Amino acid sequence: MALRTGGAILVENLVAQRVTHAFGVPGESYLAVLDALHDARDLLPFVICRQEGGAAYMAEAYGKLTGRPGVVFVTRGPGATNAAVGIHTAAQDSTPLVAFVGQVGSDTVDREAFQEIDYRRMYAGVAKWAAQIDRADRIPEYVAHAFRTAMSGRPGPVVLALPEDMLTARADVADAPYVEAVAAAPARDAVAEIERRLRDAQRPLVIVGGSRWDDAARAALREFAETSGLPVACAFRHQDLFDNRHPNYAGDVGIGINPRLAARVRDADVLLVIGERLGEMTTSGYTLLDVPNPRQALLHVHPGAEELGRVYQPQVAIAATPGAFLAQVDARAARPVATPAHAGTAHDDYEAWRAPRPVPGDVDLWRIVRWLDDTLPADAILTNGAGNYATWVHRVYRYGAGRRQLAPYSGSMGYGVPAAVAAKLVHPARTVVSWNGDGCFLMNGQELATAMQFGLRIVFVVIDNGMYGTIRMHQEREYPARVSGTNLVNPDFAALARAYGAQGETVAATDQFAPAFERALRADRASLLHVRIDPQALTMGASLDALRAGARAAARILR
Ligand SMILES: Cc1ncc(C[n+]2csc(CCOP(=O)(O)OP(=O)(O)O)c2C)c(N)n1
Ligand SMILES: [Mg+2]
């Protein structure tokens, strides 16, 4: 009999799932797991973080990049509550993630013992599955089920609580085998119906998004677009599913959408939606399609059957992964008879939308991001969180064809730093750029210490406008000149980076950016560029003063 502790059984089952990195913050609640991780340190490095929010975001980004669940370990109550932001992001972003949470022992459970929470109830509304492993001999069963659940259908987070005495108990049990996501493939007659609808369409559009894409599915999409001639738009923060330089690329259907693209979605007669669940940000707040009966004929392909018809009633609904659908659909049969030049016009609209416009101040983010677009390699990974600073990369930088975008569909701040840490760990040879606002950066800037500890040469950029600019933008529109809760007094971010041991530089004019960025790329460690922009450069189109004047004028008209 080979008796192992619960901690050892758990870690060895994660190794069996070929997990390459576990992220977390330690707690005395799961010392037995830490001890087992010591034995497994060559196979399964434990990436020690500085806050569980950062750790959970890293696991989420790992899930986005690999399609396999990111693994995060956190302690009881405070650890579990700190981790919530990453678990919620995994839910909204449909990302596979498994969170392991320490739990009080069965000898004190239900007394509200120190840091005790029932995680099944706490995460019931957020996680795909929240459970507790009460017996060490059932760990392999729970881990395999958790991994399959996190990856299958519409992927999402699973939370497993680990009672302390269960982790130190010993059991003799076999490890579970490596599990894969459950395949979901379409029925042939439904695919034929989609081909027929597209063939007859006058103003068709394809929208892609969601998870469960892999390189083969991306390549199949490209081939499908080229052969069918259909224009392809990417959903909010899924801009890397299709090469943005491709003549069939129509732009991103997200926040601050190109009005011409919005019109194209609204006026489409046939919409083929692959993998995307048509969330609020992709539909301009549920306005681009009518609820529940869209005017467009909606052909909806999504791996989670429960997402089909959840808001919009499709005319054809297919529960399949993007790859399985694209492998079956015949692009020649789907080629619309009536619309040869359709995709080219859509791409021209996209190019016009990303053409630079004047901005106030000495730092022009339009030109800086265009330079990044020209310069970054074909396999670069760009991460960001939430804020107006992100609109520049979303609109000007061209993703896809190997370039990856790691950005929260959940619209959560603080993602850019930890996501970059995960990206550089998973892909050490690739250029990783972490793009942050001043507000966003300080939500998880402490993970700069993690980047230093693990020797990760990431380029962090902080776009500093001295405010929570997005909220200020809404504030100036709704309550002009009544600034409340949005101004920030910031540290010297370059000096802060140097204090962490990273390279730090300040950029105060457009022309300083490129040489500073090149120095950052050449550095032997992480670097940070503190880019100070004019607070007037609040949005890509309108200055702060213009927003305020516009809101006041509108208020006068209403009076
Ligand atoms: C975790 C979290 N808290 C609050 C918000 C609300 N929020 C959205 S954008 C934003 C401001 C972002 O500020 P910054 O990073 O400086 O970017 P800016 O808009 O100034 O470019 C806030 C507070 C959010 N989306 N996520
Ligand atoms: Mg800001």
Number of strands: 20
Give the overall average pLDDT: 97
Bound molecules: thiamine diphosphate, magnesium ion
Beta-strand percentage range: 15-25%
| Widest sheet, order of strands | 3-2-4-5-7-6
Unreliably modeled segments: none
> What is the percent of helical residues?
25-40%
Count the DSSP helices: 22
**What's the gyration radius in Å?**
24 Å
- Main beta sheet, described? 6 strands, parallel
Given the C-alpha coordinates, what overall shape results? globular
The rounded distance between the terminal residues' Cα atoms is 83 Å
Indicate the structural class: alpha/beta
Q: How does this structure look, described?
A:
There is one protein chain. The chain has 559 residues and is of the alpha/beta class. It has 22 helices and 20 strands. The chain has a six-stranded parallel sheet with strand order 3-2-4-5-7-6. The chain has a six-stranded parallel sheet with strand order 11-10-9-12-13-14, with helices on both faces. A six-stranded parallel sheet has the order 16-15-17-18-20-19, sandwiched between helices. The model has no long low-confidence stretch (mean pLDDT 97). It binds thiamine diphosphate (TPP) and magnesium ion. Magnesium ion (MG) is lined by residues 387, 437-439, 465, 467-469.
